[in-house]
């Protein structure tokens, strides 16, 4: 059953088209996280889909990259952020705050109390009441709504309070723009055209992966009046009133009624201060808060309306129906956040970008803030179904990085970063080639992914495949080859080779396809038959001893032997045969992974990592939904079969439906672990649709157990794909049969190209397996 949870923003549900899916989104979902346990490790960002800048309240300045907590009751302002994950860090951040203040300008960290439960958390609008800054006439409120490269912030102060109550209460209205790095700077002045006070500046704050000339430039104006169109004069427009150039303080006279409402319009650029001014003029100058808010709302409506849950199904209470839609569209919001557009629009209307790879300005798109190790599994297969046009410019963004750096990035944030293992940008691009995604240079794309498979990279772990020569020679990465995480790395390389082979075949490159398919078929080389696990061995073929099936780290990335035991999603039936030849029933072992104790041993980490704690508290055996290596595991029940009606497939249907109906709940605890740039959300979205791409480079989607009775996807060409489930109910989790446009579907999968023509995929559900 779906768990009941009361959300902050409530939308009435009805069994018809969802006309405003953006209002079901609760951006605070998944934000209840700490260093030692994650419920998403995400931020409640007000932002446009895949937007250049995000905006979120900052509530803590003592915990490093964990600077927002859903249970904090103090707020330090609104932070412009590019942080995809606290594990990666932020860059180009700016903080904007409002207060009714004391006379001192010395403390940039002046905080206010607020109630997160009484605030508005929507993707296009945030509103909070600052309880600290009130009087008998009301409270100060902070509002923000985004544009592509900027935002409008509106601060409403309580009217001036006179008489005896004024004594001892300084009602000066303050707006502050604060920076983070000692090398940052901001200067105040007046905009000659409007008479508005303005500010220009830059921040160089970053977490690495950029050239030495990195700077995030900004330009803002501040105006008063209900519509933000009245010049207001601060007590000073120079920096002499500030104790540090890292923040700009603007104090306004509370007796001027035009300062009851203060509007700050800001835009930014990675290119230059002039480009920030251009963006300001194009996106926020002369615009009312309400008009920009409406535009942002419409942008989210356009993206989220691509997938319309028209019927949740029978057997649910109204509250459960509400929760189901909140979870679904909150996940769609997250799946439409990353990768980030890192390009800008110049005065001529052309797309241009500053490159963190060579420090120069180039034409065309660039993207950032998406880990390929996370996103290739789910984010991009979901985009291929719902937003192939978006997928196209993402691939071109990756290719521009390749042209500027010489290698495809693994974790651009905003440039080359060393994080995770494998070259999974290959999987993303190969899948786009195989699925016929249009709009990028296919020849260049194949050149880039082929390089990862065949060219030994420079001696670092931020580009290409380390230990590639050993892998090519032996078919695996040996334990004595100088590379860590050998088992995981080998399995990752094998999967990427499978994906690239699919791209090569689709382009008619038979030689490459044969070579790479032969590599990918060699996973048995690290399958130890007496234990039935993928294990590490040296270049002589000797497996490492002793072996602990519950020990994490060492040869495994963020997991242990159980989590990687079935990680050959591109050949599930071949893996089934390999298990059988070694005396194991893979379906039984998959079932054990779900039902056995959630045991883990620290292994070579030498300490506990949050993924271990999350798996143990989840109490779902060795199925570590909180992290990516097991995301195909439940699907292997089904993918390894020839029919959706087998007992093995039925077990997969049971576990998949149970996961999406019980583990994802609205509110700050929505996720079981790191959400990671839309990837866990996309896992939920695909699983709830009953469709999953277990292997990239293959145009098939495996059939699962859909959560909803009827979902309509508007395809890029205007056709619709309807996924319906006859006899849908909470207890009816088992598939009795599947038809595509009225014709029975043979096997356990459907073809991507068929789905993209439009039609109806109909599941018939039942309470018992066939």
Keywords:
31 strands, about 20% strand, globular, alpha+beta, about 775 residues, Beta-galactosidase, Chain A, domain 5, eight-stranded antiparallel β-sheet, disordered N terminus
Produce the secondary structure layout.
Layout: E1 54-58, E2 74-75, E3 77-81, E4 94-100, E5 112-113, E6 120-122, E7 125-135, E8 138-146, E9 150-156, E10 173-178, E11 185-190, E12 197-203, E13 216-224, E14 247-252, E15 261-269, H1 273-283, H2 289-304, E16 307-311, H3 318-335, E17 340-341, E18 344-345, E19 351-354, E20 361-363, E21 367-368, H4 372-386, H5 388-405, H6 425-434, H7 442-454, H8 468-474, H9 486-506, H10 510-520, E22 527-528, E23 533-534, H11 572-581, H12 586-595, H13 610-618, H14 633-639, H15 647-662, H16 679-689, E24 691-692, E25 700-703, E26 710-714, E27 720-726, E28 734-740, E29 743-744, E30 749-751, H17 752-755, E31 759-766
Parallel strand pairs: 27-31
Antiparallel strand pairs: 1-3, 2-5, 3-4, 4-10, 6-7, 7-8, 8-9, 9-15, 10-14, 11-12, 12-13, 13-15, 16-26, 17-21, 18-19, 19-20, 22-23, 24-25, 25-30, 26-27, 28-29, 28-31
Helix pairs in contact: 3-16, 4-5, 4-6, 4-16, 5-6, 6-7, 6-9, 7-9, 9-10, 14-15
Rounded mean pLDDT score = 93
Tell me the CATH topology of the domain at 47-304: Beta-galactosidase, Chain A, domain 5
CATH class of the domain at 47-304: Mainly Beta
Adjacency order of strands in the biggest sheet: 6-7-8-9-15-13-12-11
Which range does the strand content fall in? 15-25%
> Counting H and I runs of at least 4 residues, what is the number of helices?
17
Helix content: 25-40%
Distance between the termini: 22 Å
- List the uncertain runs: 1-15, 239-243
Shape: globular
What structural category characterises the helix and strand content? alpha+beta
- CATH architecture group name of the domain at 47-304: Distorted Sandwich
| Largest sheet features | 8 strands, antiparallel
Cα gyration radius (Å): 27 Å
Number of strands: 31
């Amino acid at each position: 059953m779906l768990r009941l949870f009361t959300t902050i923003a409530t939308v009435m549900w009805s069994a018809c088209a969802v006309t405003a899916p953006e209002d079901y989104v609760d951006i605070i979902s998944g934000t209840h996280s700490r260093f030692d346990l994650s419920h998403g490790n995400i931020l409640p960002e007000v932002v446009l889909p895949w937007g250049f800048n995000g905006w979120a309240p900052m509530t803590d300045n003592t915990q490093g990259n964990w600077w927002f907590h859903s249970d904090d009751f103090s707020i330090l302002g609104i932070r412009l952020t590019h942080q995809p994950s606290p594990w990666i860090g932020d860059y180009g951040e700016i903080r904007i705050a409002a207060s009714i203040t004391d006379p001192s300008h010395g403390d940039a960290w002046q905080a206010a109390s607020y109630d997160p439960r009484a605030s508005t958390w929507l993707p296009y609008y945030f509103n909070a009441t600052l309880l600290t800054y009130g009087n008998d006439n009301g409270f100060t409120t902070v509002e923000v709504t985004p544009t592509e490269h900027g935002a409008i912030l509106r601060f409403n102060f309580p009217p001036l309070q006179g008489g005896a109550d004024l004594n001892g209460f300084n009602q000066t209205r303050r707006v502050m723009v604060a920076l983070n790095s000692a090398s940052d700077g901001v200067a105040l002045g007046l905009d000659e055209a409007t008479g508005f006070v303005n500010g220009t500046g830059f921040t160089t704050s970053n977490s690495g992966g950029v050239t030495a000339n990195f700077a995030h430039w900004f330009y803002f104006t501040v105006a008063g009046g209900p519509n933000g169109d009245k010049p207001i004069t601060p007590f000073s427009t120079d920096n002499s009133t500030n104790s540090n150039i890292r923040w700009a303080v603007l104090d306004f006279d509370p007796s001027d009624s035009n300062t009851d409402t203060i509007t700050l319009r800001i835009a930014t650029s990675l290119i230059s201060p002039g480009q920030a001014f251009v963006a300001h003029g194009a996106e926020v100058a002369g615009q009312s808060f309400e008009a920009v808010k409406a535009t942002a709302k419409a942008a989210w409506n356009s993206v989220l309306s691509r997938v319309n849950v028209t019927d949740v199904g029978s057997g649910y209470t109204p509250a459960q129906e509400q929760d189901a839609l909140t979870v679904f569209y909150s996940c769609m919001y997250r799946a439409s956040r990353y990768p980030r557009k890192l390009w800008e629009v110049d005065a001529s209307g052309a797309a241009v970008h500053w490159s963190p790879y060579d420090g120069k300005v180039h034409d065309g798109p660039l993207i950032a803030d998406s880990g390929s190790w996370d996103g290739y599994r789910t984010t991009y297969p979901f985009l291929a179904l719902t937003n192939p046009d978006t997928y196209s410019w993402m691939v071109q963004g990756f290719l521009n990085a390749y042209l500027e750096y010489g290698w495809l990035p693994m974790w651009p944030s905003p440039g080359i970063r060393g994080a995770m293992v494998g070259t999974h940008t290959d999987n993303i691009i190969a899948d786009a080639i195989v699925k016929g995604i249009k709009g990028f240079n296919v020849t260049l794309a194949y050149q880039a992914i082929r390089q990862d498979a065949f060219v030994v990279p420079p001696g670092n772990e931020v580009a290409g495949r380390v230990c590639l020569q050993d892998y090519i020679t032996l078919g695996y990465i040996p334990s004595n080859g100088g590379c860590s995480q050998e088992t995981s790395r080998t399995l990752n390389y094998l999967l990427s080779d499978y994906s690239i082979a699919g791209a090569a075949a689709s382009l008619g490159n038979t030689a490459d396809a044969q070579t790479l398919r032969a590599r990918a078929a060699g996973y048995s080389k690290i399958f130890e038959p007496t234990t039935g696990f993928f294990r590490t061995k040296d270049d002589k073929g000797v497996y490492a001893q002793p072996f602990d099936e519950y020990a994490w780290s060492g040869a495994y990335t963020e997991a242990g032997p159980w989590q990687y035991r079935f990680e050959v999603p591109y050949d599930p039936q071949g893996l089934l045969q390999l298990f059988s030849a070694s005396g194991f029933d893979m379906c039984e072992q998959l079932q054990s992974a779900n039902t056995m104790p959630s045991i883990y041993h620290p292994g070579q980490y030498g300490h506990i990592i949050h993924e271990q704690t999350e798996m143990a508290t989840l109490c779902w055996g060795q199925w570590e939904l909180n992290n990516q290596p097991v995301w195909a595991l439940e699907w292997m029940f089904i993918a390894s079969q020839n029919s959706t009606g087998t007992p093995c497939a039925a077990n997969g249907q049971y576990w998949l439906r149970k996961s999406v109906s019980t583990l994802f709940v609205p509110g700050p605890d929505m996720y079981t672990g790191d959400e990671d740039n839309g990837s866990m959300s996309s896992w939920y979205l695909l699983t709830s649709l009953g469709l999953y791409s277990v292997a990239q480079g293959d145009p098939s989607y495996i059939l699962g157990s859909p959560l909803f009775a009827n979902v309509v996807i508007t395809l890029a060409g205007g056709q619709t794909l309807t996924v319906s489930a006859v006899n849908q109910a909470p207890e009816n989790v088992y598939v009795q049969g599947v038809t595509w446009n009225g014709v029975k579907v043979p096997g356990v999968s459907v073809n991507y190209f068929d789905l993209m023509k439009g039609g109806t995929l109909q599941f018939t559900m039942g309470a018992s397996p066939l």
